[in-house]
Amino acid sequence: MTTAYETDFYQWTQQQAALIRQGLFSELDTAHLIDEIEDMGGSKERELESRLGVLLAHLLKWEFQPARRGNSWRLTIKEQRRRIDRLLKKNPSLKPLFPGTVIDAYGDARLMAAREMDCDDSQFPLECEFTVEQITGDYWPE
Fold first, then answer.
1. Residue ranges covered by each domain of the chain
2. Which Gene3D superfamilies does this one have (predicted)?
3. Which of 10, 72, 99, 121 is deepest in the core (most CB within 10 A)?
């Protein structure tokens, strides 16, 4: 049996919200609601990973291309640090995941930096050498 969840997600969300407002909990599509709630939480983790990827790529560019350091890179680093800080303040349960997320994001950061610098990713260390404090603090690689 096809449901609105498969055919019209927006309609499904509105139906589920209406059922909750009316207190008709037995009529809820609980299996899909559980999936969607878990996915909502996962989106915050994916946001952290994405922001870390951008930040780490710019830290790599800053370190490995000192002659090209500019305001754009500096501001991107500052912006991502601010956004990561806000994300962690609003979602403190992400803090314990931070070190593992850095590991995952660093692989992407190497590729992003290599693409933007038009070089091979082997130019960069295989593992992230920035500490959590350096990533989130006011550290600027030399």
1. 43-136
2. Uncharcterised protein PF01724
3. 121
